[in-house]
Amino acid sequence: MYKLAFTLFALLPWATSGSCITTPKTVAEKVLLQLYQKAGRADKPLPALSISEENKKVAAYYPARHQIVLDEKAYRLCTEMGKDSLNALAFILAHELAHAFQAEQGRQSTNFLVYGIEDSNSNSREKAADIQGAFTTYLAGYRIEGILPAILERIYKAYGLWGKAVPGYPSFEERSNSAREVQAMSRRLISVFEAANYLAVLEYYSLAIGCHTFLLNYYQGRDIYNNLGVLHVLQALAYYEESTDRFAHPLEMEAGSLLRELDRQRGEGAPTEAEKEQRAALLQTALSYFQQALDREGSYLPAVGNAACALNLLNRPEEAIAFLKKHQFRPGKNGNPANLQLAYGISIALQNGQEKAEAAFRQLLSESTPNALYTLTAQYNLEVLNGRALSFNPPPPFQLPEAIVRKGRGLQLGLAGSQQTLVLDPRNGITLSISRKDNLSEISFGDGSGAIVSLLWWERAAGQKLLPLEISNLSVPLSRQFFYNVIPGPEGSYIRSDRDGLMLKTNRSGEVEEIIRWVRHRRKD
User: Is 348 exposed, middle or buried (0-12, 13-18, 19+ CB in 10 A)?
Assistant: First the structure.
């Protein structure tokens, strides 16, 4: 995730850039906008924000005027947190933003200081706002782990609540205990979210679906619904239909572009009638998830393209084209998003529009596309369209450096550390067990029959560095080099090496952030 390295000290009223003067309000509005964008809830308008000199609540959300009010004193307390100043501010604002999304909030305003005092429902709402807020700060690139006790202590001392039993306010000990619970739960949610991405790369789609369904209990953003849709499409592709599946479809998850492998297996024969029904049901379920993602943000491009892919896979190209046009796709015009252009070309091909489909794919090849994966896929689809798919040879996989391989293979089962178990899917008995020690984790998935797969996880510690990988050429034209086992994402790349049994996550500079060794305990279903 993107690290926010600057602090609020650089953004106080006396900090200027030309004629632009930053104020507590403009800084807080910028942080709030970043949180709102990552919350994936564009179905709810962005709350207004104001700075209060009353300094009585730290922060509050007022439903009647859909406004978050931040105390100026609270802002100043955040500036005292040094390098964690923005992280502290993000946590306070994310908590109130979560209240703005709560359907049961009603007309009653909130108060950051009055935490769960009124009744059990209030306590439940506050805890939910803390958990959702903490998870949103993570998605937005802020890091709050380890800072909550410090900012709460500053707040309680500044607001005259330190060491006192004040009627109507929880004690510092009560609030700190609650914060520790929230921090632990947030950490578990982050682990589930990250594990789901790796499970998708490993093609454990059912387990990844279980992870995302579990996350919906705490976070209902567009990306979770979109990812659930993609995972159902990938399950449907197990039932191969030559007429539609011969093309490579541009599926996009929040973690990156999960385009179907270009050298994928074709299957041993046509699906049975029962398998066809199962495939259609999975694709219909996927469409419903994509629609829920679009209900939260109507212009969310990954869900638009993914829904068109699902319609194409259902062999409903006319509906796919109408859907694309409804979402501002303009056939034949330059500058269309690459995923939509690819989906449109497939739709035309399924309608037997050979020349128009070829033109659609060639248009993508002629334009400057930031993602070489789309260029490769357009070329592949051209080969399929012209009956030359068998002559298409995908480029070789990216080979991991020996030092990375040694470090990854050194990760062993049986990590001795704190252990927690979550029930992801009570119906199927799917569980997740997490053990942690320092920057190492062991995450194991199982069911009533025993263990399924384990992820042995190394995370780069602060100040720790490995030699960066030379994968920056992913963003240049296909005439250079391309690695089909590298999945580009918004903040870096995922790399899967079947030869080594390892996965990596890198940042945009190619620096390795995480190494995962996977251990299969039994064959995939």
Answer: buried
Q: Token pair of 141, please?
A: 């690139």
How far is 383 from 185, CA to CA, in rounded Å? Answer: 49
Residues in the chain: 525
Contact in structure between 112 and 59 (CB atoms under 8 Å): yes
DSSP string of 20-75? EE--HHHHHHHHHHHHHHHHT-TTSPPPEEEEESS-SSSEEEEGGGTEEEEEHHHH
Alpha-carbon distance of 50 to 60, in angstroms, equals 10
Neighbours of 217 (CB within 10 A): 10
pLDDT in tens, 402-431: 999 999 999 999 987 778 889 998 888 899
Residue with tokens 């305990």: 521
pLDDT higher for 477 or 452? Answer: 452
> How does residue 337 score in pLDDT terms, banded at 50, 70 and 90?
very high
Averaged pLDDT of the chain: 84
Contact 72, 24 (CB under 8 A): yes
Three-point CA angle 497, 250, 299, nearest 5°: 125
pLDDT of residue 371: 64
More confident: 474 or 332: 332
Q: Which pLDDT band, with edges at 50, 70 and 90, does 393 fall under?
A: low
The pLDDT confidence band at residue 196, using thresholds 50, 70 and 90, is very high
Q: What was the pLDDT predicted at 11?
A: 39
Q: Beta-carbon neighbour count of residue 389 at 10 Å?
A: 16
pLDDT at residue 122, as a whole number: 62
* 94 vs 32: CA distance, rounded Å: 7
Residue with tokens 């490579």: 248
Continuous segment of H or E residues that includes residue 407: helix 402-409
Q: Residue 387 has what pLDDT?
A: 87
Pairwise pLDDT comparison (226 vs 476), residue with the higher score: 226
Q: Residues with Cβ < 8 Å from 118, sequence gap 6 or more? A: none
Tokens at 110, concatenated? 């909130």
What does the alpha-carbon distance between residue 13 and residue 19 come to, in Å, rounded to a whole number?
A: 12
Contact between 61 and 110 under an 8 Å Cβ cutoff? The reply is yes
Name residue 492's amino acid. Answer: G
With pLDDT > 90 as the criterion, what percentage of the chain qualifies?
51
What pTM value is reported for the model? 0.85
Which string of b and e fits 417-442 if b means at least 16 CB within 10 Å?
Answer: eeeeebebbeeeebbbebbbeeebbb
What count of other Cβ atoms lies within 10 Å of the Cβ of residue 236? Answer: 25
Cβ neighbors of 33 (< 8 A, separation 6 or more) are: 46
Report pLDDT for 186: 86
Q: Which residues pair with 494 in a beta bridge?
A: 487, 505
Structure tokens at 5: 């390295």
Cα–Cα separations (whole angstroms), residue 52 to 60, 71, 438: 10, 5, 41
The encoded tokens of residue 15 equal 């900090």
Residue 243 backbone zone (phi > 0: left; psi -120 to 50: alpha; other: beta):
alpha
